[in-house]
Batch of 2 targets.
Target 1
Amino acid sequence: MITVKKTAASDFPRLAIIYRDGFNEPPYNEGWTSGQTLDKLKLFSKYCEVFSILYDKELAGFLVLNPNLWKPGEVMFGEEMAVDKNFRGRGIGTFMMNWMVDYAKSRGFKRVMFFSNNKSGAYKLYNKLGFSKSDEVEVFSKELNQKNRVLK
Ligand SMILES: CC(C)(COP(=O)(O)OP(=O)(O)OC[C@H]1O[C@@H](n2cnc3c(N)ncnc32)[C@H](O)[C@@H]1OP(=O)(O)O)[C@@H](O)C(=O)NCCC(=O)NCCS
């Protein structure tokens, strides 16, 4: 059975490994350490909502939602999601995305949006669940070349 709960601090070390492994694989190839992903999860928990996904009571993944990224109160933004490799293909990703939609609805939001790496293999999943590429926004970006910046 798949269940969702607010992430407890004690979940962070395991989730940091799931996060690291999920994004060190292609197409992302981030090269993150578990220390870095632990820091990222702690930062997310300060500014966003972090949820743990349990499969038969075992920690199997996580979902990070940001209700304030764009049009607060209207758009619920999915920031990050990963499922432990050993638990993939069992419908957990599908469950999480449907849960995100229901949760956003229950909070009175009008839409769910998220960015996706354009090489992501999960497009099929997104389309199947009724998500399509937005024709409303383009994402612009500029590298700032700041060396050795430490995020606190
Ligand atoms: C994307 C992810 C969360 C999906 O988790 P999951 O629990 O395996 O998803 P599901 O079991 O619900 O799979 C749903 C469908 O999508 C497909 N799918 C999911 N992720 C896929 C991927 N990366 N590449 C190809 N197909 C994928 C599955 O094959 C399945 O297809 P089917 O219904 O035709 O069998 C998981 O692959 C993951 O953690 N990937 C690394 C991190 C990532 O890409 N996160 C999302 C971007 S922020």
Target 2
Amino acid sequence: MSRNIHNAGMASKQNKRMFNEEEWSEDQCRTYLSIIRWPDGFCCPHCQATKVWPLKSGRLTCSKCRKQVSVTAGTPLQDTRLPLRTVLLAARHSFASPVGLSAVQLQKAVGLPRYQSAMNLLSRFRSCMAFPDDRMQGRVAVATGPIRTAGSGPSGVPVLAAIATSRQGPHYLFRRILNTDAERLKQNFRTYVQQGAVVLTDAADHWAWLDAESAYRHRPAADQDPLLKRCNNLLGALRDWLQNVHGGAVRTDHLQCYLDEFAFRAEYAEDPELAYTELVRRLIGPRPNRTFLV
Ligand SMILES: [Zn+2]
């Protein structure tokens, strides 16, 4: 990810695309989101009817149950008071640079009158950036390290970082953990690392339990392996990102959402257009049911 941070060419390409979208009307934005939400045509979330009447307000009335439906109902964008055009522009700006924007930068970029609106919008974005259901598989490099948060003190809070390589390409995971005790790490592995994975770690004592785990093939002291080096480099890039983009102001209880964003950006670092499309698809999909394993 770090090598992309100063990729001005990519940012410039993004900005050209953004210029065209700034001319979209609110109706065009609503239609765009409707097509993503209901690619096979409208389906009422209450009664599954497929016929609908559009209202002047932009909402829809179901022809069968007569309930009014908005394109954002039941999605992470539900109840947003911001124009959909602003939301889409904000999502676009958010990927104009590989590192994203702070709330202050976003407020300025899309002309929001209130800082809190920019903060809320970025929170909605982050709420659907986690990869909840898939597990790391193949070769998996794992590292832990302290991350400073607002109020954490100089020792920081421990974070587990992992990169997996498989036929599907690299996959990233960052989890805030309470500590690096064996039981805590085992619990996270059972949740996030598929059985049979080849696990690369350094020689730290807190990985010793992996040698006795038949579910994984442990490769200790793999410090010189490029995948583990990359994993450690990403922990460094994460520290820089939290400090430089977010001013070191992220609180411990919000850290996981920022880790999700960092992993999402790493996942799509090579293709910001795909990152934007994927974020919009998630923003207009079902609301994620997040549980935090710490
Ligand atoms: Zn209905």
